[in-house]
From TrEMBL:
Region (Disordered), start-end ranges: 1-30, 578-615
Coiled coil, from the record: none
Domain Zn(2)-C6 fungal-type as annotated: residue spans: 89-116
Biased composition (Low complexity): 18-27
Family matches, as Gene3D superfamilies: Zn(2)-C6 fungal-type DNA-binding domain
Native source organism of the sequence: Stachybotrys chlorohalonatus (strain IBT 40285)
UniProt-listed InterPro entries: Transcr_Regulatory_Proteins (IPR052360), Zn2-C6_fun-type_DNA-bd_sf (IPR036864), Zn2Cys6_DnaBD (IPR001138)
Alphabetical list of SUPFAM superfamilies matching this protein: Zn2/Cys6 DNA-binding domain
Keywords: DNA-binding, Metal-binding, Nucleus, Transcription, Transcription regulation, Zinc
GO molecular function list: DNA binding; DNA-binding transcription factor activity, RNA polymerase II-specific; zinc ion binding
Protein name as annotated: Zn(2)-C6 fungal-type domain-containing protein
Organism phylogeny: Eukaryota, Fungi, Dikarya, Ascomycota, Pezizomycotina
Pfam families in alphabetical order: Zn_clus (PF00172)
Length: 673
């Protein structure tokens, strides 16, 4: 990886000197040390004889300037500008100016964004100048972090469909809001540190990032809601979540997700420009963060109906963005239903009427999901020319549609044998997962970190919950592809999903040579402890099966779960849906009956493993349900974490075979590949 250097001649470099800029002819001064975005010289006259008409709807007349602006913000061009390769009009047509929506937009299936008020039209500002009341970027480290975020972090944290947020709104607000600027600089610095570590294997000093993160927290505490919009703390909360992801602080990131969702939950329906911005940019992100929350056993507050972009499922979608937003709201609703429904199966107080009510709600959600799928299929077939197709996002939407279908349909099923009926859905996840990864391989750069939970969680879900021997191995191969090496998606680490997925297959199929991993050793300390007091021998590795004295209950209300810090499951409390930083997240497992359990043998046992996927006897595999994996052998849940010494602990739960305990619990330390 080549070292990154901020280019003072780039078109988005911020001039921080209060003295006249050497590029003053390219932009205008802010008069008070404002930030100036350096632009290229004005283009030559277009040769137009008549006066150019500048009225019309926002969609027909708006332009984006990918070189002069670091973000594709819709703007009206200054009077001297012409549409060149640097200024690209969204639509090359004359607007008919029909109110409230122009006919040209409606006929082509576009969403007409309406018209600017005359006061806004008369106050057009040149794209070259961005007024900034905030202090300037005065140090080389600040300028470097800003430029790194603008040119690398912004485009890579999300997909192209999210560039309006990461590469647009965040950059724009950073020029006037200190809290946004400090958080953005911390993100850029941490993202660069992670990239250098992944590509070069060396540590980078993160003191600058920690300093900026601290400044952002101080600025947020001083934030005055009377002088600013509620959108600022909501946006900063998203930036804090990303920072905690980069710092590998999972519990703290969950706390920020919960806080942001609480702010949304408390918002009223007062119309304002800030509310429109929240609905357009921030609510969709918080809806997608639901997936990370539920997979972490957190239960964030629901998003109010009045903050959603649509409350009814349309018969057709106008864009991929609209389809994505509605699917993630449905996913949030489906996972919320699952965590309510599954415990009812084990609660003796649940009546037949309660189950009928849950079944009716399940059918309502599935019917809505079915309507979404029809509308999305029509969009993929009839996408208007010129409308962004985002094929990678379409593959992700297919993946999460099929994942949601499985999660919701099996929410009222007490046995995992019910999953065997959804092999077509699992197969679709593998197919679209492969297509998504192909798009990563063909792209200009494969990011080592993404803010969104994308392909890792559903493909790992397929590895562990699809018992068809060939399908689950195909899913595992996807996670082992070269472009996935070292990949992180929010809370998910690809390397961990690979070793845990392999181990789950081996345990369920109970074939010693079915899937081989590296030999693992765990050497006990003199006290016999296998927790933090144990020592790890890198040359010789053993597995250990640990005993638990006391009550340990498997969380069956969620897909496979991640935990972060040293594990002490017996002390987890069911009273809180999220734990403060430095503690473990909690579940609500009170529906599981308690029985006495016997201590396990804590003597380390050797495990023969290797890295060959195809080293198994095809004659011994079964291709019909239950695929040679009866209910009692199936892993009900696998808790991943904590990480330690180049490996990861995993705790797996199966039904007790001797009937003397609730669960057969196995805890092992797996060496990362």
């Amino acid at each position: 990886m080549k070292p990154f250097h901020a280019d003072p001649n780039s078109h988005a470099f911020i001039a921080v000197d209060s003295s006249p800029s050497p590029h003053a002819g390219s932009g205008s001064s802010s008069g008070g040390g404002g930030a100036i975005i350096v632009a290229a010289a004005a283009a030559a006259p277009s040769g137009r004889r008549g006066k150019k008409v500048r009225t019309g709807c926002i969609t027909c007349k708006s332009v984006v300037d990918p070189h002069l602006c670091p973000m594709p913000i819709l703007i009206f061009p200054p009077p001297t500008a012409r549409l060149t390769q640097r200024t690209l009009r969204i639509r090359k047509v004359k607007c008919d100016e029909t109110k409230p929506a122009c006919v040209r937009c409606v006929k082509t299936g576009r969403k007409c964004d309406g018209y600017l008020p005359w006061s806004s039209r008369s106050a057009r500002v040149s794209v070259c100048h961005v007024p900034s009341p905030t202090p300037e970027l005065g140090t080389a480290a600040e300028r470097h972090a800003f430029e790194y975020y603008r040119s690398r972090s912004g485009p890579l944290l999300g997909r192209a469909i999210d560039v309006d947020f990461w590469g647009g709104l965040v950059l724009k607000l950073s020029l006037r809001e200190p809290v946004v600027r400090h958080a953005m600089l911390a993100m850029g610095s941490l993202h660069e540190s992670l990239t250098v570590m992944q590509s070069e294997g060396r540590d980078v000093d993160r003191s600058f990032a920690f300093t900026e993160y601290g400044k952002a927290m101080v600025a947020l505490r001083r934030w005055d809601p009377k002088n600013s919009t509620t959108a600022i703390p909501l946006l900063v909360c998203i930036l804090f979540i990303c920072i905690e992801y980069l710092l590998e602080h999972e519990t703290a990131s969950q706390l920020h997700i919960s806080q942001g969702r609480h702010i949304l939950y408390a918002m009223d329906d007062t119309r304002s420009p800030a509310l429109d911005m929240i609905k357009q940019h921030l609510v969709p992100i918080y809806a997608r963060l639901s997936l990370a929350s539920f997979l972490y056993s957190n239960r964030p507050p629901p998003i109010p109906q009045h903050l959603r972009t649509a409350t009814e499922m349309p018969t057709h979608f106008g864009s991929v963005e609209e389809a994505r937003n509605l699917l993630y709201h449905l996913l949030d609703e489906g996972l919320r239903f699952k965590v309510r429904a599954t415990p009812a199966l084990y609660d003796p107080r649940t009546t037949a009427w309660d189950m009928q009510v849950l079944a009716a709600e399940q059918q309502r959600i599935l019917a809505t999901l079915g309507r979404w799928h029809v509308a999305f299929s029509m969009l993929a077939a009839t996408l208007p020319p010129g409308q962004p197709a985002y094929p990678d996002v379409q593959h992700l939407l297919h993946i999460f549609y099929h994942s949601s279908n499985i999660w919701i349909k099996t929410a009222l099923e007490p046995q995992q044998l019910a999953l065997d009926a959804y092999m077509p859905d699992f197969a679709a996840i593998v197919t679209h997962g492969s297509a998504f990864m192909n798009s990563l391989a063909s792209g200009p750069a494969t990011p080592v970190f993404t803010f969104e939970t994308e392909v890792l969680a559903p493909v790992y879900f397929t590895v562990t919950k699809c018992r068809h021997p060939l399908l689950r191995r195909a899913a595992l191969r996807l996670l082992m592809r070269e472009e996935m090496r070292g990949r992180r998606e929010g809370l998910w680490y690809c390397a961990e999903t690979v070793v845990v997925g392999k181990r789950v297959i081996e345990m369920e199929e109970e074939v010693s040579n079915a899937l081989h991993m590296d030999h693992m050793y765990w050497t006990s300390s003199p006290t016999g402890s296998h927790h933090s007091h144990a020592s790890f021998d890198r040359e010789s590795r053993l597995r250990v099966m640990e005993a638990y004295e006391g009550e340990l209950h498997v969380p069956m209300t969620h897909p496979p779960t991640i935990v972060a810090s040293p594990l002490d499951v017996m002390d987890w409390s069911p009273e809180h849906s999220i734990a403060p930083p430095g503690t473990q997240p909690s579940w609500n497992p009170t529906f599981i009956p308690k029985r006495s359990r016997q201590p396990r043998d804590t003597t380390p046992k050797p495990l023969e493993v290797s890295t060959h996927l195809d080293d198994y006897d095809t004659q011994s595999l079964q291709y019909e349900s239950p695929y040679g994996v009866p209910e009692e052998r199936r892993i009900k849940n696998a808790i991943i974490g904590p990480r330690q010494d180049g490996g990861v602990w995993v705790t797996m739960f199966r039904e007790s075979r001797d009937g003397k305990a609730d669960w057969d619990v196995t805890r092992e330390f797996l060496k990362l590949m």
